[in-house]
TrEMBL record:
Organism superkingdom: Eukaryota
Name of the protein: FAS1 domain-containing protein
Gene3D superfamilies, alphabetized: FAS1 domain
The keyword Acetylation belongs to this UniProt entry's keyword annotation: no
Localization, UniProt: Cell membrane
Main subcellular location of this protein, as a coarse class: membrane
Originating organism: Capsicum annuum (Capsicum pepper)
Family of this protein: Belongs to the fasciclin-like AGP family.
Role according to the record: May be a cell surface adhesion protein.
Length: 273
């Protein structure tokens, strides 16, 4: 009995642990009216559902008075900016205080999108004037978003930190279309080989035609009066030998030309392919 109950207890503990780790960022932020605009943007861009799938997360929330023109941007641009405000680790005020004067590099959800260039998907946080300042890890970016307070925390699953203003990451407002540039380069090498080989194929293809024109020469000899008269061909054996010697090479030479020309066409088609 004890052995049969043990697996059921393990499954129950796993289910209870997973349910305890689950959270809903929209419901959590709905309890704090100062972040209602930020909460609406998370739902509008679909980022709220992505956040809820994470087991460990830190959200840098922007208050209504400092959100600025972020609400007027397109959904794609707003989502890219907001993903840089979601850290893929747990940080609360106590954990930040352990940093002292160190600068820590944080990984955001924008790094997972695959669209980050250089350090766009990372943040820097450092202690400055008895507070903590966040900023983009891109070279030359400013660290001017101060930590105002810890909104809520559920160790070690989710932490929401209130910051003074949006974090500005250079290049996120630009449209993302790098995939269309390499397309013309792939087409250029394919068109060049046929043009380079076509003169040789045409030159070699016309060569057998000149040799074929030599074949009708025996027919002109057979059309002469002496070759056409049956009496002379039947009486004199010497008259039969020259036409037979002249006409015998013509079929074989034409056949050889046809075979060689056929082989050349096959080889030319293989090379072009």
């Amino acid at each position: 009995m004890d052995r049969s109950i043990t697996p059921l207890l393990c499954i129950f503990l796993l289910l209870s642990a997973s349910s305890a780790a689950a959270f809903n960022i929209t419901k959590i932020l709905s309890q704090y009216p100062d972040y209602s605009n930020f909460n609406d943007l998370l739902s509008k861009t679909g980022l709220a559902s992505d956040i809820n799938t994470k087991a460990t997360i830190t959200v840098l929330a922007i208050p209504n008075g400092a959100i600025g023109d972020l609400t007027s941007k397109s959904e794609n641009v707003a989502k890219r900016i907001l993903t840089t405000h979601v850290v893929l680790d747990y940080f609360d005020s106590k954990k930040l205080e352990q940093m002292k004067d160190k600068t820590t590099k944080l990984t955001t959800m924008f790094q997972q999108s695959g669209n980050a260039v250089q350090d766009q998907g990372f943040l820097n946080v450092t202690a400055k004037d008895n507070t903590f300042v966040f900023g983009s890890a891109v070279k030359g970016a400013q660290l001017n978003s101060r930590l105002e307070k810890s909104v809520m925390s559920q160790p070690y699953n989710i932490s929401i930190l209130g910051i003074s203003q949006p974090i500005v990451t250079p290049g996120l407002d630009a449209p993302l279309a790098p995939a269309s540039a390499p397309a013309p380069k792939a087409n250029t090498p394919k068109s060049s080989p046929p043009t380079a080989e076509s003169p040789d194929v045409e030159a070699k293809a016309t060569a057998p035609s000149k040799e074929k024109t030599k074949a009708p020469s025996p027919s002109k000899q057979s059309a002469s009066p002496e070759a056409a008269s049956p009496s002379k061909n039947a009486d004199s054996p010497t008259a039969d030998s020259p036409p037979s010697d002249a006409q015998a090479p013509s079929p074989s030479s034409v056949g050889k030309l046809n075979v060689s020309f056929g082989l050349f066409v096959v080889l030319a088609s293989i090379i072009i392919a």
